[in-house]
Specification:
By secondary structure, the protein is α+β, with helices and mostly antiparallel strands. It has eleven helices and 19 strands. The protein is 29% helix and 23% strand. The relative contact order is 0.19.
């Protein structure tokens, strides 16, 4: 085991899986059926937050790009924005800034329709472009998958009940230009929503991901690209506003600028802790902001990975209660 970073702590284990185990997981996922990884879409977004960062009542290109990123989960560059301005006649004076008057004179539906059509032809403009499947060892009853599950349990060294209640693997395939921009795997305890793994599937209630640890398994050799990047690893400080303004959240364009870049290698595992430990309770504490990470764009071939998340909330009693088992499918 090798330590790749201390802030956050990222560990690497080479040859964690055999080639045969990697191939087997891919076959199981393909047999189960792959589906598009879901992100927000323009037609589903109901809350548009105008990102006028300097409060001058004018949106420059970067501020409008941020507005679209935050509201629609779509990542455009300046050329994309200028095309939208041109197609919709938004920038009436041609200064590339959108005034309050220019913005209010534009029908919001026309912007949403333009984004929907534009991204449908360019899916790599979404924050995430991949396909996935869920594998449940307790349901599949596959000997090889069970062996991998036991190996992960031994690796993390946490109470077995945490794994038994939420035993799924997420298998993900990234094709050409496939990526996942910088994000956190878990939510902050400051968010008032309950943990998703404490709710019944399909409840419709808003919730947050509560993932204490991430175990990421690389399942194939990638011809080009596909590294895992931690943009702010080992930084002294982190300011989310400055980071977003820099555009470095877009790992399709800024992968190599990340502080830590982990190449994809078949059979390798990397693990990290998404949360600190609470020094008072000894249980899961606040989110570690430095775990911000993502999947760099695949430039050639395909990339296969499997994610194993150790789901833990700030409610120790619920997590360790063998009788508390929400009906997750």
């Amino acid at each position: 085991m090798m330590t790749l970073s201390m802030k956050p702590q990222v560990l690497e284990i080479k040859h964690f899986l055999t080639d045969e185990e990697c191939d087997h997981m891919i076959r199981l996922a393909e047999k189960d059926g792959m589906f598009d990884s879901v992100t927000n879409t323009p037609t589903k977004s109901t809350n548009v937050k105008i990102m006028d960062m300097n409060r001058d009542t004018v949106l420059n290109l970067r501020e409008f790009i941020l507005t679209i990123e935050n509201s629609f989960d779509i990542y455009l560059d300046e050329d994309d924005m200028l095309k939208m301005y041109s197609d919709l006649g938004m920038d009436t004076n041609g200064d590339t800034d959108i005034s309050r008057k220019e913005l209010h004179s534009q029908d919001p539906k026309s912007v949403i329709d333009w984004l929907t059509e534009y991204v449908a032809k360019r899916p790599h403009k979404k924050s995430r472009m991949s396909r996935q499947s869920w594998l449940y060892p307790s349901k599949i009853r596959d000997k090889i998958l069970d062996e991998i599950q036991e190996r992960v349990i031994s690796l993390v060294g946490l109470p077995r009940i945490l794994m038994d209640k939420n035993d799924e693997f997420q298998v993900v395939q990234y094709g050409p230009k496939g990526h996942y921009h910088a994000h956190w795997d878990s939510g902050s305890w400051t968010e008032s929503y309950p943990c998703c793994h404490h709710l019944k599937t399909g409840s419709g209630q808003r919730c947050k991901s509560c993932r204490f640890m991430t175990v990421l398994l690389y399942l194939n050799e990638v011809e080009g690209g596909g590294a895992t990047a931690f943009p702010i690893a080992n930084n002294e400080t982190f300011d989310e506003h400055s980071f977003r303004m820099s555009g470095k959240i877009n790992l399709h364009r800024h992968c190599e600028e990340a502080n830590l870049v982990v190449p994809a290698k078949k059979g390798k595992a990397i693990i990290w802790y998404n949360h600190h430990l609470d020094p008072t309770t000894g249980w899961v504490g606040e989110l570690d902001s430095f775990t911000l990470h993502g999947g760099c764009g695949v430039t050639s071939g395909h990339k296969w990975i499997a994610n194993k998340w150790i789901l833990v909330s700030d409610d120790r009693d619920k997590d360790l209660d063998p009788n508390f088992r929400p009906n997750r499918t």
